[in-house]
Amino acid sequence: MKQSPTTFCISPLQRYCVRPIAADFLRRVREQGLDDLGQPVEHHIAQGGEPCRDVLRRAHPGEALILASHSPLALPGPYREFGPVFVRAAAAESTAPLGALPLQGPQPYLGPRFVLRAYSAQERIVDGQVVEAHEAEALLQQQFARAEVAFVLARFAGYGCFAARIERV
Questions:
Q1: In this predicted structure, what is the pLDDT of residue 105?
Q2: Whole-angstrom Cα distance, residue 118 to residue 165?
Q3: Does residue 53 contact residue 71 with C-beta atoms inside 8 Å?
Q4: What is the mean pLDDT of the chain?
Q5: Ordered strands of the 51-52 beta sheet
Q6: pLDDT for residue 6 is more than 80
Q7: What pairs with residue 70 in β-bridges?
């Protein structure tokens, strides 16, 4: 599921890339109406504030959404899990991978507190911590300083759902 880095992700301080949900998943849920478990997706109208994994922002009230089951991990095994994700029903707007955590704006995508869970290349958990937004950058740098960490998944604190994949560049 690894995607190649782009220049959008490179900055002098951050050596990582925050990626929206994979394009193949988006095509499948939008065009075929099936999620990662082969189940039919659900269509919803946003009340506002739902986390849209395809654009790394919160939904606007009235926006058409898809709710589907997704696994951010590709390898079979005990760590592979599936959970609910919202994506926009229409693909009109796209988000390039980000070179910083999405923490800005009146309703930040990740919120004031979230989880950073580090994984090995074999998709085994190496580390995981609940972090305050203002401390997240330092923790992420610590996790990526460990050679065994291949990528990090950001998860929402309240429900534990997948928020974004973060990779080294």
A1: 85
A2: 10
A3: no
A4: 90
A5: 42-45, 64-70, 83-88, 51-52, 57-58
A6: no
A7: 83
Tokens linked to 10: 């490179």
Residue showing tokens 């592979």? 80
Q: What is the pLDDT of residue 99?
A: 87
Question: Looking at residue 74, what is its pLDDT?
Answer: 95
**Distance from C-alpha of 169 to C-alpha of 16, rounded to nearest angstrom:** 5
Instruction: Reduce the DSSP state of residue 134 to 3 states and report it.
Output: helix
Q: Which residues are 159's β-sheet partners?
A: none
Alpha helices in the chain (DSSP H): 23-27, 136-145
Listed in sequence order, the residues at least 6 apart from 58 whose beta carbon sits closer than 8 Å to its beta carbon are: 48, 49, 50, 51, 52, 107, 109
Residue positions counted in the chain: 169
Max Cα–Cα distance, the chain, nearest Å: 44
DSSP per-residue letters across 143-162: HHHSTT--EEEEEETTT--E
Give all strands (DSSP E) within 63-109, no chain letters: 64-70, 83-88
Tokens of 133: 């937004």
d(CA 139, CA 147): 15
Q: Which residues pair with 164 in a beta bridge?
A: 154
